[in-house]
Amino acid sequence: MQPARAARSWGVPAIETVGALAEWLRVTPGELEWFADLKRMIARREDGFEGPLSHYHYRILGKPGRDVRLIEAPKQRLKQMQRQILAEIIERIPVHPVVHGFRRGRSIKSFAAPHVGQRVVVKMDLRDFFPSISAPRVQAMFRAAGYPEGVANLLGGLCTNLVPRALWTTKAKGLDPLRMAEARQRYACPHLPQGAPTSPAVANICAYRVDCRLIGLAEASGAVYTRYADDLAFSGGEDFERGVERFAIHAAAILLEEGFAVHHRKTRIMRRGVRQYLAGIVTNEHLNVIRRDYDLLKATLTNCVRHGWESQNREGHADFRAHLTGRVSFVEMVNARRGARLRELLDEIRW
Fold it and tell me: Is the pTM of this model over 0.85?
């Protein structure tokens, strides 16, 4: 174990050989090689995406005119190993203070709070956040923590995945061929799978360098910067407002240099006089929910009280009560006064 200087205080467990890693994960060395699949043999099999040798369940999400997303959910044994790696190694590695997503004590509320009352707010969205983080980058993270190359490579293999080629020809029916071709290219290399318990925390760690560069750019421009997963927010006063368009270009260039791409259609430069919002929270004068969303939820709850909840479950939620409870809890988190009124209506519904 020879960690980088900054990693000496992380306190990760010492695992110096492949055999020790297998023992730590309670598997045999052969099973460890199979689960890590560094040669990506499973992805080359014709039945690789649904056979008994596959380690993931796949679900393709796609709507007309939108990018295709792939949910890669690990099966039970691999998920258990990933959770152990997350709890005993990954969570001991610090992330940049600007990060608010997937961190204890942080939320979209803390993500948006630093941008309240600013003259201009810039919202940027990253394309393909998890697929953009490659297996070599993840393995480098484990090497920085001090693990020998063989151990780091296996840990990286357990946390990344390569989508079997057969998946795209079997499950692509009815979807836009152009979008499917883009998705096939996007997932063509080993990457962080969206659906694995380790992926959010690993993504935050691997984005440390880009967070450092963006906070430096923001401070030099008189701005504040926060990030929630793939949502980036910058805000500032008059000095920042004067050069905000140029700033957005520089930020996108930094992201591109670091292996990330901006979803330019979702970039928003919001000045005073228009609604400034981040992650569904309005930030103009104080944190608040979007008025239209609040009014629609209030109307739904009122109709549930008057006409019964069955009449309002138009989208067919399996647990409509839990769905409404979650939406009311979100309003309570952002605006306690408005949330209290919605809670009263929710309690009046006869389930």
Answer: yes
